[in-house]
């Protein structure tokens, strides 16, 4: 049995593409080649990969008829694809275990493991991949095109598989699959490597219904793992395009009595914080193209004008690399009024049309 596992630590906590290491015999790849490709905010340690963000992905290539995934994650589901086709959905369970995929056709295969859910207060662990009577091939090359998606539960594809609005926590978790969300749909259509930094319930400066006023999306966006304030992103991740969908939680509930901002101050501070985020992205990612989305929200349609005002201010300041995309009305028939699969397909189509119109040189 051959194993791919981590044997040394990356120089920092990786934001997206972290160098991988290997142990055990290698075939059809020299000893300096990483046996897998990592995408997303994985935290790498001596013998494991850990994650709290959704959409982190491990991809490897092998020759053989059986491959196993070794993991310990009691909170998140994982989608497993072989040669581009979904073959297994790994459900949460406690304890280290190996999930085998056997009876594959003899020959060369590509496996992709995608973490479906976000777990901001829990760290999921993947120990690696194992083979039965097979051999590892060279890791897939990273795509030159790179897209980062920043957002909330809509970007995280919360409950996108559900067909009802009233759900318990177990139903929400089991019907969430970011691999079928608009972000990964768009990235795959464009042949791009993705990073999905999305967090449900969190707003840019105000969370849903004013919850948890001592923290917001910015608190956690700066972290590789939500649970570790010392974990920092890796500057090697350099996307040419960033798609931002923030503001739903800031504006979808009325400001409550006792909150630190009234409605007017919320709008002012939101615009300032959004422009600061754009400034930071421009500096970190060397002036990427940025698409910002917004939609009509109950009760008073505050997200669209505030996001549009941010774009107008950026244009007035000379930044023509930011683009406003108002989303068409959505069905929102998923749990807790979240987008369903058709909604995600609709958003993906809107984004693809916008991206194609930009004629990016990537």
Automatic annotation (TrEMBL):
One of its GO terms (molecular function) is carboxylic ester hydrolase activity. InterPro entries: CE2_N, CtCE2-like_dom, PCW_deacetylase/CE, SGNH_hydro, SGNH_hydro_sf. Residues 149-327 form the SGNH hydrolase-type esterase domain. Gene3D superfamilies: Galactose-binding domain-like, SGNH hydrolase. Residues 1-28 form the signal peptide. Residues 39-140 form the Carbohydrate esterase 2 N-terminal domain. SUPFAM superfamilies: SGNH hydrolase. It comes from the Bacteria. Keywords: Hydrolase, Signal. This is SGNH/GDSL hydrolase family protein.
